[in-house]
Specification:
alpha/beta; Rossmann fold; 3 domains; six-stranded mixed sheet; 24 helices
């Protein structure tokens, strides 16, 4: 390895009297990919952003040397030049990182105007060139699109194009693929690796996704509570982790622990049934002639399935396949064609019978969202959040009874007052990500529903917390006989939780059957593509290029079936 491009020595970071990073020391050479790994709060992002002094209120000591120049000692004016010249950042969620008021082309062109001194026409042409380089389809037209008009993968490619406009020597990638489905993750990883090699960039990857690290990074640095507890090459650390914390992270793959019910017996007690369910959206007219025609986009087309009591139906597919749209239809939140029944009551019958019937119907099916931080109101206490549904469905209940029921429900999801003093009066920001998701689950369960719709319930969580939340959902299903409609792109989660699987593509179900049959012997090319993409990221054998040929079943799933 050549002389290090970036050297970090004895880096300490404090916020007031609290020290959050303790003597971090590591380096990165040009053309090298280094991953900072650890749970939320371990100090990964704080270290990365403190390299450029982008953390407000932080006291930074130690050395951050770029080509021998200590960035810690640089005044703000000189640092601004370094940020735009030598460093670039790719953030986790491009929808929030991109400015919604400007097209993506304008945002990329601004860098060329401000940092490179190009005129408007030259800057725009350069912006389109960068989008072409990131392999975004129809780059010239996409450059004029606003962030909300692009898919998740396209937005992330636009973010990469913005980073490349700086022509950086060091790229800081903060969870660059967490919000993407599995096939897009493979595409973005392949793109980043190609661009990194082409430009000989040093990449500092901040992530909690160990599968991503295994496939992308050269070296790994493991952080726990602001301390580097282990460092080495990816092959060395994954093959023989020395520290207990590293072993804990590597041993966080979801474990299947569900009641295996005979399919015929389960279907005799069907709790949710859909027949030919479809969702259509009216397409805005683009010409005078189109105004007189009913142009429809078929987001979901003719989906039929049965969900038995105490069973989990997994719904998988890429972004835009119709998974979440189907879930919203099942919840009665979107107009739909066909028929959807809970028990022996259809949504149409409940609607015709009036408000009280709809209210009873909705009580039987509840939702747990992907990101508990955004789905829980920051202005409401835990008591208000969890107890709100009780106040709506049972308005005659006294405050004392509501409080008591909320406490019992929180205890059932592992949040007891004895462990969290003054629990009911706290606000969401006072809890960790996993604790917030437990609050969200308690909110969904407080009405004693028959069905929970789980929309990527663990994708925003660390690997260890993911396993804890899945274990909680498994135990609740066993104890309460709950049925789950599980939306996810994570094949390990599907294996751990699902009894049956629907594979969706372009609004249609291309495959439907038992989880063992689907994962072992997929019949449709699209299903094989999804499983192959998952395998490309997660396979546990010797590290190989991302474009290698792979077998059909992911190693973690294959091993689970072998030992079952």
């Amino acid at each position: 390895m050549s002389e290090p491009l970036l050297k970090i020595e004895r880096l300490d970071i404090r916020f007031g009297d609290k020290q959050v990073v303790h003597g971090a020391t590591f380096d990165i050479s040009a053309g090298e990919k280094v991953a900072l790994v650890g749970e939320s709060g371990s100090g990964k992002s704080v270290i990365a952003l403190s390299i450029l002094k982008l953390i407000a209120g932080a006291t930074i000591t130690g050395k951050v040397e770029l080509d021998g120049e200590d960035l810690v000692l640089l005044p703000e004016r000189d640092l601004t030049a370094v940020r735009g010249r030598d460093f670039a950042v790719i953030f986790q969620e491009p929808m929030t990182a991109l400015n919604p008021l400007y097209s993506v082309g304008e945002q990329i062109a601004e860098i060329y105007r401000v940092k490179h001194g190009l005129d408007a026409r030259q800057a725009w042409n350069k912006a389109v060139d960068r989008l072409v380089e990131t392999e975004i389809s129809d780059a010239a037209r996409r450059a004029r699109a606003y962030p909300h008009q692009l898919s998740g993968g396209q937005r992330q490619r636009a973010m990469i194009a913005m980073a490349l406009a700086c022509e950086p020597r060091v790229l800081l990638a903060d969870e660059p693929t967490t919000a993407l489905d599995v096939t897009l993750r493979v595409q973005i990883l392949t793109l980043l690796e190609r661009l990194q090699r082409k430009r000989n960039m040093a990449v500092l990857l901040i992530t909690h996704d160990l599968n991503l690290v295994r496939r992308f990074a050269d070296r790994i640095i493991v952080l726990q509570a602001g301390n580097i507890v282990e460092a080495g090459t990816v092959n060395e650390v994954f093959a023989a982790p020395r520290h207990a914390y590293t072993r804990k992270l590597l041993d966080s793959t979801p474990v299947r622990n569900v009641i295996e019910v005979d399919a015929d017996g389960a279907l005799s007690d069907t709790i949710l049934r859909t027949r030919d369910a479809g969702v259509d959206y009216r397409i805005a007219a683009r010409s005078l002639s189109e105004m007189f025609h009913r142009n429809l986009f078929h987001a979901v087309q003719d989906i039929s399935f049965d969900l038995g009591r105490g069973r989990t139906l997994g719904i998988i597919g890429e972004s835009g396949s119709g998974k979440s749209t189907l879930a919203q239809a099942v919840l009665g939140l979107l107009p739909f064609r066909g028929n959807i029944e809970i028990g022996d009551v259809s949504w149409r019958d409940a609607t015709n019978q009036g408000f009280d019937a709809r209210k009873r119907w909705r009580r039987r099916i509840q939702m747990v969202f992907q990101d508990p931080y955004s789905s829980l109101s920051p202005r409401m206490t835990v008591l208000q959040i969890v107890g709100e549904a009780l106040s709506f469905h049972e308005p005659a209940l006294s405050t004392k009874v509501i409080r008591s029921r909320v406490q019992v429900m929180l205890e059932s999801v592992g949040l007891a007052e004895s462990r969290f003093p003054n629990l009911l009066a706290r606000y969401p920001h006072e809890f960790s990500g996993g604790q917030r998701q437990r609050i969200a689950i308690a909110r969904a369960l407080i009405t004693h529903p028959d069905i929970l719709v789980l929309d990527e319930p663990t994708s925003a969580l660390d690997v260890t917390i993911q396993r804890q939340v899945l274990s909680l959902l498994q135990s609740l299903q066993k104890r309460l006989g709950l049925s789950y409609l599980l939306i996810t792109h994570d094949m390990d989660v599907i294996h751990a939780m699902a009894h049956d699987v629907i594979v969706m593509k372009d609004g249609r179900a291309v495959e439907y059957g038992g989880v063992h049959d689907i994962l072992r012997s997929p019949q449709h090319d699209y299903t094989r593509k999804l499983i192959q993409s998952s395998n490309t990221i997660s396979r546990d054998d010797e590290k190989k290029p991302l474009t290698r040929s792979v077998s059909t079943v992911p190693h973690s799933i294959e091993m689970a079936f072998t030992h079952a």
